[in-house]
Design a protein that fits this description.
Length: 470
């Protein structure tokens, strides 16, 4: 196993190297230094006016989960910086200001590494006060089992699969919306479009086989099967992380060929064909590229995760087209209610939902922290979920007026608030997220510039849904 730890608190940085992590340490440490700003060391012991809290998390500095995982981490780091900055309101227990030390391990996109890391953080020599979950539902499942066994709170910003919350939860809470709600708004939007045009949408369900994508598939199938505006003619899946996704004759290429054969046999007008599916970032990019290479464009293409990444338009574009033209134009996805580039997320702190209090910085403050301190990146929506996890944990401690594990666990299950990253509020029995919503976004080209626009719900749309795809 290769893993490195980095502890980040109030302008605080240190690197730990457990004996069982020595192999390959120098290479991974260099990766960490390139990825995260290094601050001057400061003392992190409690004082008369400061209470330090140790929070453990793993992130994927390499492997298939790298991009969304690091985006989520940047959101966490930005909110730790905001909380620890004495110039901001922050959070208090009595007269003591809360400050966080975030201890980060590289799991290299491996669930085996996740198991070793969270076991150490929950009960080993590196034991922390609280845990934040890793990226992906399968990795979160591993961490959640450890948190339940060791009775240590796990805040899960990236574990969407409903199966994670089927049983009563003692020690885990969800930040992102559950997978069963990911495509609910998308299906509603497509159904309304079909009704308006007086057509039936011939529908292909084409999802990855991991537990997250399977959860989304099952809920989506139930929705389209119950809606007479849809006729499902294809329902199949492709394997997760199947090597080189663009290899001719490989698993992904074979799957797309089978999909296109089924479309041809269906003998429907392409203006009525919709493809709903996907899984994560790398397979979503490959899916779009393969459809492009085979010169097939459906009326609508919805993919999970990948289109929400700011570089998706350019990633999908053919090499000779640069970023001026791309098959990504018209592709849709569902995202949590935060995107860095959209004006509708620049909420005034006084403009909050009924019954909810505002927590944390404004949108612009959060975005500035993410971009200026961690490489001026253009973050994806996962940064919002990571940031929300930190805010929820801090607010729960303040409400509990304690850092004792059971008191914070009870407080975070009762907690409801709004931040620049959206709403937070979970079911007290299962820990499943109830208040965070999903938006449907679509890549559109406006005045020769690719932009990601909210197209549904209509109350928050920044542009009309383009149907069929260009």
């Amino acid at each position: 196993m290769r893993s490195t730890n980095k502890s980040i608190g109030n302008r605080n940085s240190k690197v730990l190297s457990p004996a069982w992590l020595l192999c390959g340490l120098a290479i991974i440490f260099a990766t960490l230094l390139l990825s995260i700003d290094v601050h001057a060391k400061v003392a992190n012991a409690d004082s008369s006016d400061v209470k330090y809290v140790r929070i453990g998390v793993s992130a994927s500095f390499s492997g298939s989960r790298r991009s969304p995982s690091l985006n989520g981490l940047y959101g966490m780091l930005a909110m730790v910086d905001w909380i620890n900055n004495d110039d901001n309101p922050g959070f208090k227990i009595g007269k003591k200001r809360l400050k966080f030390n975030l201890e980060i391990y590289d799991d290299s996109s491996s669930n085996d590494n996740v198991e070793q890391i969270y076991s150490s953080l929950a009960k080993g020599s590196n034991k922390v006060d609280f845990l934040i979950g890793p990226y992906s539902s399968s990795a979160t499942q591993v961490a959640a089992e450890i948190s339940e066994e060791r009775k240590i709170l796990l805040v899960a910003p990236f574990g969407a699969s409903d199966s994670l919350y089927e049983n009563p939860s003692g020690w885990r809470v969800q930040v992102c919306p559950p997978a069963s709600r990911y495509y609910k708004e998308l299906v509603a939007m497509l159904s309304e479009k079909a009704s308006t045009l007086g057509i039936t949408l011939n529908t292909a369900l084409a999802f990855e086989t991991d537990i997250f994508s399977t959860s989304v598939h099952d809920a989506t199938k139930e929705l389209v099967d119950a809606d007479t505006n849809f006729n499902t003619f294809f329902d199949s899946s492709y394997p997760s992380e199947g090597g080189d996704l663009l290899t001719v004759g490989g698993d992904m290429d074979t799957f797309v060929n089978e999909l296109l054969v089924s479309i041809e046999l269906n003998n429907s007008d392409s203006d009525s064909i919709v493809i709903i599916g996907g899984g994560h970032d790398t397979d979503g990019i490959a899916f779009a590229q393969l459809l492009d290479s085979k010169e097939y464009t459906p009326a609508a293409l919805a993919l999970l995760i990948a289109p929400g990444i700011p570089t998706f338009f350019c990633d999908v574009a053919q090499a000779d087209a640069g970023c001026t033209e791309s098959y990504a134009e018209g592709v849709t996805t569902s995202v949590f209610t935060w995107l860095p580039t959209l004006e509708i997320f620049k909420e005034n702190i006084t403009n909050v939902s009924d019954g909810l209090n505002w927590v944390g910085p404004s949108h612009d403050e959060a975005l500035e922290l993410i971009k200026s301190k961690y490489g001026d990146i253009e973050p994806s929506y996962q940064a919002g979920s990571g940031g929300q996890a930190i805010l929820a944990l801090a607010k729960a401690m303040e409400n509990a007026q304690s850092t004792k594990k059971k008191k914070v666990r009870n407080a975070i299950k009762k907690l409801k608030f709004q931040s620049c990253f959206g709403n937070y509020g979970v079911d007290k029995d299962t820990g499943i997220q109830e208040l965070q919503d999903m938006l449907v976004v679509q890549w559109q080209v406006i005045s020769d510039e690719p932009e990601l626009h909210v197209v549904w719900p209509q109350s928050t749309a920044t542009n009309d849904f383009v149907f069929p795809m260009p």
